[in-house]
Write a structure and sequence with these properties.
This protein is an alpha/beta fold. It has 6 helices and 13 strands. The strands form 3 sheets. Strands 1, 4, 5, 6, 7, 8, 9, 10 and 11 form a 9-stranded mixed β-sheet that branches. It has a two-stranded antiparallel ribbon with strand order 2-3. The structure holds 1-O-pyrophosphono-5-O-phosphono-alpha-D-ribofuranose and uracil (URA). The site of 1-O-pyrophosphono-5-O-phosphono-alpha-D-ribofuranose (PRP) has 24 residues, from strand 4, strand 6, strand 9, helix 4 and helix 6.
Length: 209
């Protein structure tokens, strides 16, 4: 089964509470999502391997630590995953960025793919899939299927809010994919929205409703 890590941090919890409020407008919603993504990127990269390097400060020679040349790629699921890209890149500016376009059919709630563009060496990279919402788990599972079909072997999933149902689906279909979230909510409602959740992340991010 997938390892599930919940980033239980006061600043993440505080910012997420602001995002959940229905009065929070698109500008603040975007900024908060970007800030939380930066904090989550900081946590998710905690175990990256480092190497000792010789450097010279203005004072003397010394050794320092540098992140080993592990190749990372982040892959936002369009649209809402786009809101997590800048925050992540502010911590790991050298990560390459792929894009997967998926939307949920409003009737069936099943994901429909409409876009896929990856860095050419994606199969050699550790891929961090970004999407604020893990609801039924259909979109994340479909995105992971697409990445695995292109040869990706090391994939992590980073969500803001997850429903227990979505976590179960992804970890059953893709037990090799670890999941990192800011919060696990109660359940899904009849429309497959997360409860309490924060509503439709894409619409709130881009002001489309
Ligand atoms: C949202 C969200 C996820 C998906 C999660 O996207 O950003 O991609 O729903 O739901 P699931 O786990 O049940 O698949 P949406 O389909 O609303 O598309 P959008 O970002 O383009 O609005
Ligand atoms: N997609 C969203 O944007 N929000 C939900 O609660 C579920 C799916």
């Amino acid at each position: 089964m997938s390892k599930v890590s919940v980033f239980d941090h006061p600043m993440i919890a505080h910012k997420l509470t602001l995002m959940r409020c229905k009065e929070t407008g698109a500008k603040d919603f975007r900024n908060l999502l970007s800030e939380i993504s930066m904090l989550m990127a900081y946590e998710i990269t905690r175990d990256l391997p480092t190497e000792l390097v010789e450097i010279e400060t203005p004072i003397c020679k010394t050794t320092g630590r540098k992140v080993l040349g592990k190749k990372l790629a982040i892959v936002p699921i369009l649209r809402a995953g786009l809101g997590m890209v800048d925050g992540f890149l502010s911590i790991v500016p050298v990560a390459k960025v792929g894009h997967i376009g998926l939307y949920r059919d409003p009737e069936t709630h099943l994901p429909v793919e409409y876009y896929f563009k990856m860095p050419p060496d994606i199969s050699e990279r550790t891929v961090i899939l970004l999407d604020p919402m893990l609801a039924t788990g259909g979109s994340a599972s479909a995105a992971i299927d697409c990445l695995k079909a292109r040869g990706c072997r090391e994939i992590l999933l980073m969500n803001l809010v997850a429903a227990p149902e979505g976590i179960e689906v992804v970890s059953k279909k893709h037990p090799d994919v670890d999941i990192y979230v800011a919060a696990v909510d109660e359940r899904l409602n009849e429309q497959a929205y997360i409860v309490p959740g924060l509503g439709d992340a894409g619409d709130r991010l881009f002001g489309t409703k």
